Amino acid sequence: MVKRSRIIAFFLLVVLLGGMMGLTAEKIVKNIKLGLDLQGGFEILYEVKPTKEGEKITKDVLLSTVSALNKRINVLGVSEPRIDIEGNNRIRVQLAGVKDQNKAREILSTEAKLTFRDVHDNVLMDGSDLVEGGAKQTFDDKGKPSVAITLKDANKFKQVTEKVLSMAPNNVLVIWLDFQEGVDSYAKEVGKEHPKFISAAEVNEVFNQTDVSIVGNFTVEEAKQLADLLNAGALPVELKEIYSTSVGAQFGEQALQETILAGIIGVALIFIFMIVFYRLPGIVAVITLSIYIYLILLIFDWMNGVLTLPGIAALILGVGMAVDANIITYERIKDELKLGKSLMSAYRIGNRGSFGTILDANITTIIAGVVLFVYGTSSVKGFATMLIISILASFITAIYGTRVLLGLLVKSRLFDKRPHYFGVNPKDILDIAKVTDDTDVPTKFERLDFVKRSKLFFTISGALTIIGIVLLLTAKLNLGIDFSSGTRVDLMSKKPLTIEEVKDELSKLHLEPKDVVLSGNNNNMAIIRFLGVLDQKEISQLKSHFKQQYGVEPNVSVVSPTVGKELARNAFIAVLIASVGIIIYVTVRFEMYMALAAIIALLHDAFLVVAFFSLTRLEVDLTFIAAVLTIIGYSINDTIVTFDRIRHIMKKRKVKTVDDLRDIVNKALQQTFTRSINTVLTVIFTVIALLIFGSDSIRNFNLALLVGLVCGVYSSLFIASQLWIVWKAKQLKTGTQKREKWEAEPEV
Q1: How does pLDDT run across 459-472, given as a tens digit for each residue?
Q2: Residue 536 burial (10 A CB sphere; 0-12, 13-18, 19+)
Q3: Checking CA distances to 422, which of 116, 307, 362, 534 falls within 20 to 30 Å?
Q4: pTM score
Q5: How many CB atoms lie within 10 A of CB 200?
C-alpha cells in the first residue's frame, strides 16, 4: 500500500528547505569576506629587529608593534585588517581591499621616529616630546601645506631654540624622520635638491611655546600623511620584509568571476551525472548537495572566515568529494537490489554497510586537511579550512540528509516494484530464493581479471618511478619563488604582450628579469621572475610604472631565502606527517598490510605528480603542495572502498591458499569498479571545469590534482590490492608452514 503522506512530507520538506535557502542565501553570500587575492590587497611577513644593539624582542615589544601598526592601518581606512604574531620575531599583516598599496607599504614600514637636531646631527628633541594625537595638516602664512604639532613642554622648546640660536651662523633646527645613525648627516644632505630631512629652519629668536609648525616642500597629501604618521606614533622596532604578495584589484575581480563560472559548470555537470546515472537517488543527491553548498557558506559566515581563491576551489572540489558518500551508499543499495532484496531491505543494509566506508574515507582526507592548516601559509590555510568544513558538512548532508529524504521515498512504498528508478535493470536481479551468503553481487565486470596482470602493472609503475627519479636528478623541479626565493610579477594588459616589450619596459626601471613567460588569452598576461628580492622602493616603482603603462596594477610576490627554505622544509614535514597519520588510522581500522599497501600507493601517486611537473617544467609553488596533500588524503578513498569490500568478502569465505586471496581481491575490485570510477569522475568534473574556465592563478594546482586523481584510480585498481596479496600470501605461507610443522611433530 502506497503511503502518500511520505511523498507529501518529502515535497513539503524540500519546499521548506528550498524556501529558507532562497530567502537567506543572498544575505549570507554578501556577508562573507573576500581575501586579498579576490578583492586586491597585500600580505607582508615582517621580521622584527631591535632598533638598538643589545635590545631584545619580547612578547611585549611585539604586542606594542602590533598596536602601532593597527594605528597606522586606521589611517589607511582599511576595514577588518589582520595582524598576527608568528613565532618569536615575526608579524604578518594582511590588508584586503586597500586602494593605494604603495602608500600602505610605506606607512607600515616607516619607523616614523621624529627627531629635532642641530647641524652637527646632535639630538635635541624627539617624538616623545609631542602631545599624543597633536599633529595635523595645516597651511603656513604663505599658503603652503605644513604640519602643525603640539609639544608637551614649552620650556624645553625654549631651551632648544636658545641653544640653536647660540650656534650662529649655523643656527638651523633640522627635523628628521627616521634618521640613520652613521649613515645620514645634515652635511651630506644640505646641498641636495631633495634632501632626506623633512625641514631645516633657521632660528632667529627664542620660542617659548608649545605650537610648532613643520614647513617643507610638502604637497597637501604628503603633509597629511606625515601628520597621520606622527599621530600613529613611532614603531618601537625595525621591520624587515621577508615575504610579501600583492594582488591588483582587477586581478582579484577577474579571478573571482572566472572561478565562480568554473564552479557553476562543474557543479552542474555533477548534478546531471547523478540524475542520469542514479535517477531517483540522484535527484535526492542534487537536493542534499544544494543543502551542502548552502551549509558551507553559512558555517563560513558564522566563523567570520575570509574566502580566498584556493578556498573557493576547495568548495567546488568539495562538491565533487561530497557526492562520493552518496555514490558509495547508492552503489551498496544497488548491490542489495541485485541480490533480490526488497527496496526497504536494500535501503537499510546499504545505509548500514556504507557508513563505515564513508567515515574511513572522510577521516583520511581530514588528516591531510589538518596537516595543511598547520603547515600552510595564509592562502593554503584558507584552502585547508574550507576542505575540512566541506568534509564535515558533506558527512552530515550525505549521511543524514540523504537518509531522511530518500527514506521518505523508500518508505512510501511507491517504488517497491520499480528498481529502474534506482538505476537497476530488472534483468540483473537474482532470484532471492537462490541467493545464499556466498552469492556474489552480479556485475558487468566479472570477466575482468585485475590480479592476473599485476606483474605487468608493477613493472609499469616501477619503470615510471625510475624515469621520475632520473628526471628529478637531471631536470629537477621548476621551483617557484615560494621555495627558491626571489620575486615574481604577474602582469596583465588589455592588449597582447610580447616578451621583448615586457623586457624593454623593465629596462626602463633598470630591472633585469630571470625569465618572462606569456600566458592568458591572446598573450595578454606575463609572468616575470627575478632571482633577487626587490626592495620596497623597486616594487613601488614597478607597480606604478606598469599601472600607468597598461592600466592594471600588477601582482608582486617576494620571498626571502630564509622563508623559502622554511616553506620547503614545512612542505616535506607536512607530507611525512600526513602519510604517517594515514598509516596509523588505516592500521587501526583495517590491518598493517593494508595500511602499508595504501600508503605506498599514495606515495606512488604523489611521486608521479612530482615527476610530471619535472617533465613538463611547470612551476612548483605552495598550491602544488596543497594539491599533493589533497591527493594523498583523497585518493585513498578508492583504496579504502576496495579494502572494505575485501574485508567483507573474507568474512564469508575461508582463505587457505594464495588463489583464494586472488579470487577475493578480484571479486572486490569487480564489485567496486563502478564505484571507484564514479567517485573520482565527479571530482574530475570540477577539476576540469576549474582548469578550463577557472583562474590562471590556480591552474597548476588543478593540473596537479587532475594527474593525481588519474594516478589514484590506477593505483587503487592495480597497485594497492595487488601489493596486499603479495604480503598476505607470504603471511599465509608462513602460517601454513608453522601449522604443518606443528601437525608433523610427534606427540609426547
Answers
A1: 999 999 999 999 99
A2: middle
A3: 362
A4: 0.78
A5: 18
